[in-house]
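dumping this here so i dont lose it
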């Protein structure tokens, strides 16, 4: 009963600068952050990729940052991605890792042209290194613009991945548009606080929308990337891929760093492709708050750890 108000409260705190400062300077902050974030540096991110690769898991790396306020900041983020890709290549890890990019991190005030140019630089570098890029999806006010940029990027780099969020009422029809053969689409439930006009409020409706959209992607021949930790959904998706006669390797499961690692290993040991979303960087606050909002038990863990040394 208390879950929804708590979730809204935590998501509201994600936008608060004073709460961010309070959390960042709390004694136990590092321990909590370390559960969900691989570290602050590229080296730490690469170490996490190596650890995952050791038991057959792949990674998609996210350099944390969103809603940048000036071009200098976006330039710093783009350059970090370029360096990350170089270092992945030099370490022989590009077969195991790709990158995920938030457009709000590589543009200013929603400038689509700048987003396209900067995301394009990252896509070009990824292609040179032999890997791919997935463009994360943010709140519903950005969905159209994000899909426009992805469509444009795909003209040059057809492997660019799109993300759909099953909590949005529009997602099944977006899935139809993106379900062509080889189209890489990550399907997740969605992590932002959205109004009822655009999003399903009940968990059951979000799950049904997820399965309907998964069916559309599987039927259309897309390379579906099932991003969920939900045990019930993972089971249903296993049934759906078999029903559509999909071979292993023509779809994948994705989960977040630090969430259900045993399940990640179990799926990988069964021969499934499993990709772990590995965030790193100093700007971990917004990301951490969204992870806490997903699960009240994480919030209790977080508050206990913050209070301890
Ligand atoms: P749900 O939240 O219903 O959780 C099901 C079960 O999974 C829980 O009961 C619990 O056991 C476990 N679980 C889930 N979250 C947990 C957590 N934080 N800690 C511990 N256990 C947890 N969203 C978005 O809006 N845009 C995006 O681009 C992406 N990208 C993305 C990539 C990848 C690889 C993943 C896995 C997820 C995203 N997301 C995302 C986040 C996604 O939308 C969603 O918020 C989370 O995955 C949680 O939803 P679940 O499907 O796991 O189900």
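and the seq i came up w/
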């Amino acid at each position: 009963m208390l879950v929804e108000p708590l979730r809204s409260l935590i998501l509201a705190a994600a936008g608060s600068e004073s709460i961010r400062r309070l959390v960042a300077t709390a004694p136990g902050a590092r321990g909590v952050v370390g559960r969900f974030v691989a570290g602050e540096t590229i080296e730490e991110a690469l170490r996490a990729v190596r650890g995952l690769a050791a038991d057959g898991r792949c990674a998609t790396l996210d350099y944390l940052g969103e809603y940048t306020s000036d071009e200098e900041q976006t330039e710093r983020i783009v350059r970090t991605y370029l360096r990350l890709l170089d270092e992945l290549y030099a370490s022989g890890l590009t077969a195991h890792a790709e990158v995920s990019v938030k457009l709000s991190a590589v543009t200013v005030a929603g400038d689509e042209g700048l987003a396209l140019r900067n995301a394009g630089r990252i896509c070009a570098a990824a292609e040179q290194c032999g890997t791919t890029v997935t463009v994360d999806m943010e709140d519903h006010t950005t969905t159209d613009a994000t899909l426009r940029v992805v469509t444009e990027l795909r003209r040059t780099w057809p492997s660019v991945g799109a993300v759909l969020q099953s909590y949005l009422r529009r997602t099944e029809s977006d899935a139809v548009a993106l379900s062509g053969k080889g189209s890489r689409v990550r399907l997740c439930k969605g992590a932002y606080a959205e109004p009822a006009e655009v999003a399903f409020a009940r968990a059951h409706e979000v799950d049904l929308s997820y399965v309907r959209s998964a069916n559309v992607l599987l039927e259309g021949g897309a390379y579906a990337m099932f991003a969920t930790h939900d045990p019930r959904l993972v089971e249903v998706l296993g049934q759906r891929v078999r029903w559509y006669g999909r071979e292993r390797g023509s779809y994948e499961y994705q989960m977040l760093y630090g969430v259900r690692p045993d399940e990640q290993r179990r799926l990988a040991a069964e021969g499934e492709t499993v990709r772990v979303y590995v965030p790193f960087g100093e700007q971990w606050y917004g990301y951490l708050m969204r992870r806490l909002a997903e699960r009240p038990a994480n919030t209790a863990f977080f508050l206990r750890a913050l209070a301890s040394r």
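Strands lie at 58-63, 97-101, 133-135, 162-165, 184-188, 223-227, 251-256, 274-280.
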